[in-house]
Amino acid sequence: MSIDDNERTSECCTFHPHTTEIGTFAISEDSVSPETPFEVSLTLNKQGAVKSAAMTGVTMYMGTIPVQFTQVDTHKWVARIMVGSCSEPRMVWHLNVDIQYQGQARSVFYPITVSQF
User: What is the pTM assigned to this prediction?
Assistant: First the structure.
């Protein structure tokens, strides 16, 4: 299932859940490939707002990729992401998200492994 500018859904992401102190991330694909779009959801434990987000390479620095989240229900936010390929067969990225949560600015990250195979 994918999302675009005209279609937003709260049911996109079920793979590789990652729980933080403020909520849970999940991804739309069991295996993520470079140069192929995928979705990430963030379900907050309580109402909050995503202020900014970006992907940053961990295995190899490849710059910062801005990420735009869209709120799909009271506690759930979804983003469509695509990363470039590199010389590494497996690349770890961090999705860094800045959130306004319970009146405080918070930052959380979600590690995402991208494989060329």
Answer: 0.86
